Amino acid sequence: MKILDRYILTTYLKTFLSVFVILMLIFVLQTIWLYIKELAGKDLDVIVVVKFLLYFMPKLIPLVLPLTILLASIMVFGNFAENYEFAAMKSTGISLQRAMSGLSVFIVGLGILTFFFSNNVIPWAELNSYNLRRNIAKIKPAMLLAEGQFNAVGTYNIKFADKYGDRNQFLKDVTIHVKGSDGRTNATVIKSKTGELASEKDSNVLKLILNDGHDYSDVSPKDRKAKNRKPFVKSTFETKIINIDLSKLNNVDFDEQSQTDKYNMLNVSGLNKTIDSLVVKYNNEHETFSKNLLLRSGLNKKPLPNKTVIDSSYTGPVLELFNTKMKINMVDLALKSMISSKQLIISKDTTMKNSKAWLNRHVISLQEKFALGFACVILFFVGAPLGALIRKGGLGLPMVIAILLFLTYHFIGIFATNSAKNGGFNPILAPWFSTLVMFPLGFFLTKRATADRGLFEFGNVLEPLKKALKIKEKNSIDYKFLSDYENEELVDVINNYDTLGHQEDIRYHAIEILNSRGLFTDELRKSGLIISKNYNTSKAIKKNYNEHSKFAIVLYTIGIILLVLFFVFKNNKLPSLTIPSIQLSMVALVLFIIYYIKSIINTFQFYNHINKNQKKPNVFLLIIGLPFYFITYLFLNEKMKGDLKANCLESLK
Q1: Do residues 138 and 152 lie in contact, with contact meaning Cβ atoms separated by under 8 Å?
Q2: DSSP β-bridge partners for residue 170
Q3: Which range among 21-25, 345-349, 490-494, 515-519 has the greatest average pLDDT?
Q4: 387 closest CA partner among 113, 647, 11
Q5: What global pTM score does this model have?
Q6: In whole angstroms, how far apart are CA 135 and each of 142, 173, 206, 398?
């Protein structure tokens, strides 16, 4: 390793480790804040709390590591550029790519190490943290009784509307579900107006005193006919005392692992095996359901017609082969079968969607293990050249830029992943989507930093597009002074611009001012100005284009905003808002396409009229510009404005 590579690597590692420790500390504190309710009031040993944090720290790596790489890269390379160290390197013939080469090897190695970490350590952390949380929740469940929701305490599910008192011991509107002998069904329901938690502190018995309530208990008779009546026993009480033994619940083994097969607890081999079995199971369920529908339809049964058909090639209505009674029976049977099948499909649809969603979660978890390593590499090639371009080190501007870029990367990933879980996005592509979005940015920044060009040079970006759409440069001369001229002076400027020392463009601006004052072609002719009427038609076509294009851009904006809101509402499971937003979005986008086509027709009419067919915009570019109408509108409007000016000057004789 050369001295330069060693210097860059050691500088980067110092910043990397410092940023990593700080960010990890911040996220650990956030974790404590999120789960403080689960830890408070449990009398947990320090070892258990340390285990809790130890198990959660590896799960923070997918957040902390990409942000660390991005921030450290911007800070280090920004500091090199700010202190003219890059200038010194370039003076000796060392390019930015050469300076990044040593670090690139380190980042690629880190990406590979990240894959093994996410494949082995993170599943282990998920397994232990999930089961540890479940075990902690079993200790002193009375401390976690929350209002407005059911709280599981052994075989009891307790819910109440409000709690009050100096120790929050008094309850209002209490509802209790008691599980049956099978441990699943709610065999007993108890409702009372008020209640009181009367347990002693540190007691192993939860004493609950209920006042003014009812008790409903299911009865399970052996007789089948009696079961169909669904009998139950109802009783009324003024005071009822329930003692719940917590000794078994408080005696918890923190190392117990009751669940080990959740998708985020599996490595690549385990996920591949589980995905294969889930695919087979899903296909079998689908096939079984299809066969069940076929059997219920009765299509496999062939009732014999009770009429003799002489001609074997009979092509008349099938029902005509049966008598009236048989027809009625068949239609009634078909109707009932259709209603029954429809209900069955509706009920099965939820099950199939849940199965598909569960499969998608496994696929996403598998792809996330590979995507994380690539994300680290891509974010390095975003941060390093960006730091060299902004030429700023430290924790000021680099921190702001890094956080903005990371939030963009992170929220794109969350949006894609949540959509994929519900089947709205490809589950294979979803974990890679944010990385793929950042890839062009990394390529662009690396290319510009290597060429030693500025971060933003809009002329270089817009120039190819202007050439493709044949747009001329705007005149930089300001003609506002013409507004102070009288009409006769403006006509004189148009006729004698050259003798007055003006450029020819001034004639167009003078005519525009005269038109704004209500003087058009006929009036200008009377004033001694020779101008072709052909220009009036050109201007009318351009005016129609302006109206249609303005409608198009308004409808495009509305359609895109509603489309984004549709995905937001769908992601947050708001069906009442999802359907109207997509319907209104489709209406707006369809109307946008109609007005876009009208504006394109106006464009071709304009160039046909001025006999400049060679200047017509490329049809292929217009089609590509449809989804990016803001850019298309901007350039096309400028192009037609310039060509209208040229037509105006040609119309002057």
Answers
A1: no
A2: 164, 196
A3: 21-25
A4: 11
A5: 0.56
A6: 15, 29, 19, 43
